[in-house]
Amino acid sequence: MAERNVLVERFLSCHVCSETFRDPVSLSCNHSFCSSCLQQFWEQAKNKNCPICKRKTSKDATVNFALKELADSFAGRQETGSSETEKEKKLQVVCSKHQEEPKLFCNDEDRALCHICDFPHHTGHKVVPVEQAVSDLKEQLKSDLKSLQDKRNKCKQVEKTYNEMIEHSKKQLLSTEQQIRAEFNKLQQFLKEEEESRLAALREEEEQKGKTISIEMKWIEKQISSLSDSICAVEEELHKHNVPFLSSYKATQTRARAQSSLSDPQLLSGALIDVAKHLGNLSFRVWENMKDKVHFSPVILDPNTANGWLHLSDDLTSVRRGDTKQQLPDNPERNTEYTTVLGSEGFSSGKHSWEVEVGDHPVWNVGIAKESVNRKGECPASPKHGIWCLSHYSGEYSDVVGKTVTVKKSLQRIRVQLDYYWGQVSFYDPEDMTHIYTRKETFTEKLFPYFNIGKHGDAKTTDVKICPTEISL
């Protein structure tokens, strides 16, 4: 019997480590070895020849399950029950020779080590206890988790703003439609066809921009869902035991960092309905049919840029500061820090002029501003911040650098004159064309008419209006 056991042990022993097979694999030459021993031998030999007969293997080394079952049975390694299974799962090792849970971790190679086999080969590497490595890596994952959570919060904020923009677009649709109908009702029946065509254009734009926002919203929802999945994965990872954590944390961390590095979602410009396009100079655009009844306004105010305290007229040619702030979406074009509104069309060449009726309004700035002017933060009216204007405050008038300018009488109207090519913006009293002051600059980007309406105590103060220009044919 003893001789038989010796023969069996010899048959079930690995020729590399001389121990009973663990996960034996058989080569095409029919020689068998422990899987880990064979891989280690191949790495050292830098080829895939059989360690015994030196023949090159003609197939992948796969586990010989029949031999494995015999070896496990002979060595007493067969599973004895669910409790043993759980114990085996809990005790994961990195060395087939030394069945101990790893106690060391190499930061340089980012892996756990067998303190007997591997440690001597890691001289000069940063080797730390597994507990310390796990603690450090979990801290990294916590940081990644925080990044994911912050990004998800930003996504949710963008989603919230898009929802507000959708609701506001619906209100814009209704309001603009009513104003278009009111305008066309002033015209005769022969303009009915023109009216319907413009209503169709409005609805088409609302539909197109609604689709654009819907596409962006779906993308944001996917981002939120993906980030939420990653957050759950990271949180799940952080609850794992040391070795299971070490065996799986890398993929989770890679995914989390990849998502964290993605750029933050940005709101699309121009997502709101271009109300100015539909309402601005509406009568003028049909002047060939109604020559004697239309008036042209050289500047149309853009409601998508208006601060919430400002209220625009239906035809977008006058503005007043209200007593209550409107709830408007924080779209990229909107001025939120100052009570400012811009014209709907900018200028990047040529000569342009328009007149503004300021009446007895006590506080205002009127002029031009760069397209890139800061609409969300600190931005005083000065050339440094891309604004050139005439200001009125406490009964005094001042230029763009705050220097007081002298006028003969209180100004009721202001003419703004822009010569883009020569880099000049001038201000006049249109009543007698008295020159107030001129500023020379070098303009490099599109300029927009600029209106800032300050606080005042008299609720009856007149609106600031764009003066209409008669059309000469």
Automatic annotation (TrEMBL):
Domain RING-type residues, every copy: 14-54
Keywords, comma-separated and alphabetical: Coiled coil, Metal-binding, Zinc, Zinc-finger
Matches recorded under InterPro entries: B30.2/SPRY, B30.2/SPRY_sf, Butyrophylin_SPRY, ConA-like_dom_sf, PRY, SPRY_dom, TRIM/RBCC, Znf-RING_euk
GO molecular function: zinc ion binding
SMART domains the UniProt entry points to: BBOX, PRY, RING, SPRY
Domain B30.2/SPRY per the UniProt entry, residue ranges: 279-469
Ranges for domain B box-type: 90-130
Cited PROSITE patterns: B302_SPRY (PS50188), ZF_BBOX (PS50119), ZF_RING_1 (PS00518), ZF_RING_2 (PS50089)
SUPFAM superfamilies per record: B-box zinc-binding domain (SSF57845), Concanavalin A-like lectins/glucanases (SSF49899), RING/U-box (SSF57850)
Record keyword Coiled coil present: yes
Positions in coiled-coil regions: 131-168
PANTHER family linked: E3 UBIQUITIN-PROTEIN LIGASE TRIM
The protein's name in its UniProt record: Nuclear factor 7, brain-like
Organism, scientific name: Anabas testudineus
Lineage, uppermost ranks: Eukaryota, Metazoa, Chordata, Craniata, Vertebrata
